[in-house]
Amino acid sequence: MDNKEKFEKYENLLKEWAQKINLVAPSTLSDIQNRHINDSAQLATYIPKNVNIIDLGSGAGFPGVVLAILGWNVICLESITKKTNFLNILKQELDLPNLTIVNDRIENFLLKTPVNTGNFVFTARAFAPLIKILDYTHKKHCRLFLLKGREIETEINAAKNKYKFDYELYPSKTGDGHILYIKSVK
Predict the structure, then answer these.
(1) Distance from first CA to last CA of the chain, Å, rounded?
(2) What confidence tens digit (pLDDT) does each residue in 77-96 have?
(3) For the chain, which terminal residue's Cβ has fewer other Cβ atoms within 10 angstroms, N or C?
């Protein structure tokens, strides 16, 4: 199965499962390709190919599963069991041996998992405010690639009250959001 077929199957599985559990906003199901897949795929422009990805609060698999389809080794971290079940179905149905699904809370996973700063990056989309993401990840000293919405400047300013970090901000190619790249956090 090539990537085009994998993305089509992903879209069909998402529509099927969205009838059972809350994975994405129902209003976005008519435009999954642009709203979710293309939005997630734009991170491929920024993330180096030689890193492993830890996707925080993966939910329906955005951006983690999309990046796994595109070739990265990805750990999708999700605390809600029914969403983890969906992610496991995606792993199996899309034949993604480079995708690992972990059903755990972020703080627990990061406490017990060694993360090599040079080999790992964090991603997240529609997960939590920036300050909360930094609370979880700052001790791991990894780079972050976050898909964020219109209020990103407010989130950055709030986070700067607690953390020092270098960042770059890029406009989204699929909507009015942003890609936030954080290089280092202190």
Answers:
(1) 43
(2) 999 999 999 999 999 999 99
(3) C
- Amino acid, res. 13: L
| pTM exceeding 0.85 | yes
Q: Per-residue pLDDT tens for 47-75?
A: 999 999 999 999 999 999 999 999 999 99
Bridge partner residues of 179 (DSSP): 147, 170
Whether residue 105 contacts residue 34, with contact meaning beta carbons closer than 8 Å, is answered with no
Question: Are the C-beta atoms of residues 98 and 149 closer than 8 Å to each other?
Answer: no
Angle in degrees, CA 138, 171, 25, rounded to 5: 80
**Residue 139 DSSP SS3:** helix
* Coil, helix or strand at residue 185: strand
CA distance readout (Å), 63 to 60, 95, 96, 159: 9, 17, 14, 23
How far apart CA 165 and CA 138 sit, in angstroms, is 10
